[in-house]
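DM from R.C. (forwarded with permission)

"hey, sorry to bug you on a friday — could you get me a structure for this? deadline for the figure draft is monday and I only need the backbone to look sensible"
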Amino acid sequence: MKKVLIVVSHPDDEVLGCGGTIAKLVDKKCEVKVLFLSDGESSRLRKENIKKNLYRRNCAIKAMKILGVKNFTFNNFPDNQFDTISLLKISKRIEQEIQKYNPDTILTHHNGDLNIDHQRTSRAVLTACRPKVKNKVKLILFFEILSSSEWNINSKKNFFIPNWYEDITKYLNKKIKAIKCYKKELRKAPHPRSLETIKALSIFRGSSSGVKYAEAFQLGRKI
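My reply, with the result:
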Protein backbone atom coordinates (compact mmCIF):
# COMPACT_ATOMS: atom_id res chain seq x y z
CA MET A 1 0.00 0.00 0.00
CA LYS A 2 1.54 3.27 -1.14
CA LYS A 3 -1.45 5.45 -1.94
CA VAL A 4 -4.67 4.57 -0.12
CA LEU A 5 -8.19 5.91 -0.52
CA ILE A 6 -10.65 5.29 2.32
CA VAL A 7 -14.26 5.54 1.08
CA VAL A 8 -16.87 5.81 3.84
CA SER A 9 -20.54 6.66 4.04
CA HIS A 10 -20.40 8.75 7.21
CA PRO A 11 -17.88 10.50 9.44
CA ASP A 12 -16.93 8.02 12.22
CA ASP A 13 -17.01 5.01 9.87
CA GLU A 14 -13.37 5.62 9.00
CA VAL A 15 -12.30 5.29 12.65
CA LEU A 16 -14.60 2.39 13.52
CA GLY A 17 -13.67 0.45 10.41
CA CYS A 18 -9.97 1.10 10.02
CA GLY A 19 -8.79 3.86 12.33
CA GLY A 20 -5.81 1.88 13.58
CA THR A 21 -4.82 0.91 10.05
CA ILE A 22 -5.06 4.54 8.93
CA ALA A 23 -2.69 5.62 11.71
CA LYS A 24 -0.37 2.75 10.79
CA LEU A 25 -0.34 3.66 7.10
CA VAL A 26 0.39 7.30 7.88
CA ASP A 27 3.21 6.23 10.19
CA LYS A 28 4.63 4.08 7.37
CA LYS A 29 4.66 7.17 5.12
CA CYS A 30 1.81 6.01 2.90
CA GLU A 31 -0.36 8.66 1.28
CA VAL A 32 -3.87 8.43 2.73
CA LYS A 33 -7.04 10.22 1.70
CA VAL A 34 -10.52 9.83 3.21
CA LEU A 35 -13.64 10.39 1.11
CA PHE A 36 -16.76 11.07 3.20
CA LEU A 37 -19.91 10.62 1.11
CA SER A 38 -22.52 11.90 3.58
CA ASP A 39 -22.62 14.11 6.65
CA GLY A 40 -23.92 11.22 8.79
CA GLU A 41 -26.25 13.52 10.65
CA SER A 42 -28.91 15.14 8.45
CA SER A 43 -31.40 12.25 8.69
CA ARG A 44 -31.80 13.13 12.38
CA LEU A 45 -32.34 16.84 11.84
CA ARG A 46 -35.13 19.14 10.73
CA LYS A 47 -34.78 20.36 7.16
CA GLU A 48 -34.11 23.94 8.24
CA ASN A 49 -31.14 22.81 10.37
CA ILE A 50 -29.41 20.52 7.88
CA LYS A 51 -27.30 23.20 6.21
CA LYS A 52 -26.34 24.64 9.58
CA ASN A 53 -25.13 21.32 10.93
CA LEU A 54 -21.36 21.04 11.10
CA TYR A 55 -21.04 18.80 14.16
CA ARG A 56 -19.94 15.57 12.49
CA ARG A 57 -17.72 17.46 10.05
CA ASN A 58 -15.91 19.13 12.92
CA CYS A 59 -15.58 15.77 14.67
CA ALA A 60 -14.06 14.28 11.52
CA ILE A 61 -11.55 17.11 11.19
CA LYS A 62 -10.40 16.50 14.77
CA ALA A 63 -10.20 12.74 14.21
CA MET A 64 -8.19 13.20 11.00
CA LYS A 65 -5.67 15.32 12.88
CA ILE A 66 -5.21 12.61 15.51
CA LEU A 67 -4.75 9.90 12.87
CA GLY A 68 -2.40 12.11 10.86
CA VAL A 69 -4.55 12.42 7.73
CA LYS A 70 -4.24 15.76 5.97
CA ASN A 71 -6.19 14.91 2.81
CA PHE A 72 -9.96 14.39 3.11
CA THR A 73 -13.08 15.47 1.24
CA PHE A 74 -16.70 15.86 2.36
CA ASN A 75 -19.74 15.23 0.15
CA ASN A 76 -23.45 15.75 0.61
CA PHE A 77 -25.22 12.57 -0.41
CA PRO A 78 -28.43 12.17 1.65
CA ASP A 79 -27.72 10.56 5.01
CA ASN A 80 -29.23 7.07 5.41
CA GLN A 81 -30.95 7.49 2.05
CA PHE A 82 -28.36 6.29 -0.46
CA ASP A 83 -31.06 4.02 -1.88
CA THR A 84 -33.02 7.10 -3.01
CA ILE A 85 -30.35 8.12 -5.51
CA SER A 86 -28.91 6.18 -8.41
CA LEU A 87 -25.95 3.90 -7.85
CA LEU A 88 -24.49 5.45 -10.99
CA LYS A 89 -24.35 8.87 -9.32
CA ILE A 90 -22.47 7.54 -6.29
CA SER A 91 -20.16 5.46 -8.47
CA LYS A 92 -19.32 8.42 -10.69
CA ARG A 93 -18.35 10.52 -7.67
CA ILE A 94 -16.04 7.77 -6.44
CA GLU A 95 -14.67 7.22 -9.94
CA GLN A 96 -13.96 10.94 -10.20
CA GLU A 97 -11.98 10.76 -6.97
CA ILE A 98 -10.06 7.71 -8.16
CA GLN A 99 -9.09 9.42 -11.41
CA LYS A 100 -7.96 12.51 -9.52
CA TYR A 101 -6.12 10.80 -6.66
CA ASN A 102 -4.88 7.61 -8.41
CA PRO A 103 -4.85 5.25 -5.41
CA ASP A 104 -3.39 1.76 -5.59
CA THR A 105 -5.54 0.61 -2.63
CA ILE A 106 -9.12 1.28 -1.52
CA LEU A 107 -10.60 0.46 1.89
CA THR A 108 -14.37 0.62 2.19
CA HIS A 109 -17.51 -0.90 3.70
CA HIS A 110 -18.52 -4.53 3.55
CA ASN A 111 -21.64 -5.00 1.42
CA GLY A 112 -23.34 -7.16 4.04
CA ASP A 113 -23.78 -4.34 6.56
CA LEU A 114 -27.24 -3.56 7.89
CA ASN A 115 -26.88 0.13 7.05
CA ILE A 116 -28.16 0.85 3.53
CA ASP A 117 -25.59 3.60 2.95
CA HIS A 118 -22.78 1.15 3.70
CA GLN A 119 -24.23 -1.38 1.26
CA ARG A 120 -24.53 1.17 -1.53
CA THR A 121 -21.07 2.59 -0.88
CA SER A 122 -19.51 -0.86 -1.12
CA ARG A 123 -21.32 -1.58 -4.35
CA ALA A 124 -20.45 1.83 -5.80
CA VAL A 125 -16.76 1.30 -5.06
CA LEU A 126 -16.77 -2.01 -6.93
CA THR A 127 -18.56 -0.36 -9.84
CA ALA A 128 -16.05 2.48 -9.91
CA CYS A 129 -13.18 -0.04 -9.75
CA ARG A 130 -14.21 -2.19 -12.68
CA PRO A 131 -11.10 -4.14 -13.76
CA LYS A 132 -10.28 -2.16 -16.87
CA VAL A 133 -6.79 -2.04 -18.36
CA LYS A 134 -6.01 1.48 -17.13
CA ASN A 135 -7.42 0.93 -13.66
CA LYS A 136 -4.64 1.57 -11.13
CA VAL A 137 -6.49 0.17 -8.10
CA LYS A 138 -4.75 -3.11 -7.32
CA LEU A 139 -6.17 -3.87 -3.88
CA ILE A 140 -9.69 -3.53 -2.46
CA LEU A 141 -10.37 -4.36 1.19
CA PHE A 142 -13.71 -4.32 3.00
CA PHE A 143 -13.91 -3.49 6.71
CA GLU A 144 -16.50 -4.14 9.40
CA ILE A 145 -18.44 -1.50 11.32
CA LEU A 146 -19.66 -2.25 14.84
CA SER A 147 -23.46 -1.87 15.12
CA SER A 148 -23.86 -2.51 11.40
CA SER A 149 -21.84 -5.49 10.19
CA GLU A 150 -22.85 -7.77 13.07
CA TRP A 151 -26.42 -6.45 13.37
CA ASN A 152 -27.53 -7.79 10.01
CA ILE A 153 -29.12 -11.24 9.84
CA ASN A 154 -26.21 -13.22 8.53
CA SER A 155 -26.29 -15.52 5.54
CA LYS A 156 -23.70 -16.86 3.12
CA LYS A 157 -24.38 -13.81 0.96
CA ASN A 158 -23.71 -11.07 3.50
CA PHE A 159 -21.55 -12.60 6.25
CA PHE A 160 -18.32 -10.72 6.99
CA ILE A 161 -15.54 -13.31 6.73
CA PRO A 162 -12.16 -11.69 7.43
CA ASN A 163 -9.10 -13.02 5.63
CA TRP A 164 -6.78 -10.01 5.97
CA TYR A 165 -5.56 -8.66 9.30
CA GLU A 166 -3.63 -5.53 10.16
CA ASP A 167 -1.64 -5.46 13.38
CA ILE A 168 -2.64 -2.21 15.13
CA THR A 169 -1.02 -2.93 18.49
CA LYS A 170 1.01 0.29 18.29
CA TYR A 171 -1.97 2.30 17.07
CA LEU A 172 -4.98 1.25 19.15
CA ASN A 173 -4.59 4.24 21.47
CA LYS A 174 -4.80 6.59 18.48
CA LYS A 175 -7.92 4.80 17.27
CA ILE A 176 -9.57 5.16 20.69
CA LYS A 177 -8.54 8.80 20.93
CA ALA A 178 -9.91 9.47 17.43
CA ILE A 179 -13.28 7.81 18.06
CA LYS A 180 -13.68 9.91 21.20
CA CYS A 181 -13.92 12.91 18.87
CA TYR A 182 -17.35 11.52 17.92
CA LYS A 183 -18.62 11.76 21.47
CA LYS A 184 -22.33 11.86 20.54
CA GLU A 185 -21.99 8.63 18.53
CA LEU A 186 -20.57 6.62 21.40
CA ARG A 187 -22.78 4.60 23.74
CA LYS A 188 -22.42 2.83 27.07
CA ALA A 189 -21.50 -0.85 27.20
CA PRO A 190 -22.70 -3.35 26.19
CA HIS A 191 -23.63 -1.34 23.08
CA PRO A 192 -21.27 -2.23 20.19
CA ARG A 193 -20.25 1.43 19.82
CA SER A 194 -18.97 1.64 23.37
CA LEU A 195 -15.25 2.14 23.97
CA GLU A 196 -15.15 -1.22 25.75
CA THR A 197 -16.57 -3.08 22.75
CA ILE A 198 -14.38 -1.26 20.24
CA LYS A 199 -11.34 -2.36 22.20
CA ALA A 200 -12.77 -5.87 22.67
CA LEU A 201 -13.15 -6.30 18.91
CA SER A 202 -9.51 -5.26 18.45
CA ILE A 203 -8.52 -7.87 21.04
CA PHE A 204 -10.63 -10.56 19.37
CA ARG A 205 -9.28 -9.79 15.88
CA GLY A 206 -5.80 -9.75 17.36
CA SER A 207 -6.28 -13.15 18.96
CA SER A 208 -7.48 -14.46 15.60
CA SER A 209 -4.22 -13.41 13.97
CA GLY A 210 -1.61 -13.87 16.69
CA VAL A 211 -1.11 -10.26 17.72
CA LYS A 212 -2.32 -8.16 20.64
CA TYR A 213 -4.69 -5.86 18.71
CA ALA A 214 -5.81 -6.03 15.09
CA GLU A 215 -8.34 -4.79 12.56
CA ALA A 216 -9.90 -7.31 10.21
CA PHE A 217 -10.74 -6.97 6.53
CA GLN A 218 -12.23 -9.07 3.80
CA LEU A 219 -10.26 -9.17 0.58
CA GLY A 220 -12.32 -7.96 -2.34
CA ARG A 221 -9.69 -8.00 -5.07
CA LYS A 222 -5.91 -8.14 -5.30
CA ILE A 223 -4.00 -7.80 -8.55
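R.C.: lifesaver. Residues 42 and 53 are 8 Å apart (CA to CA).
me: no worries. The chain has one domain: 3-222.
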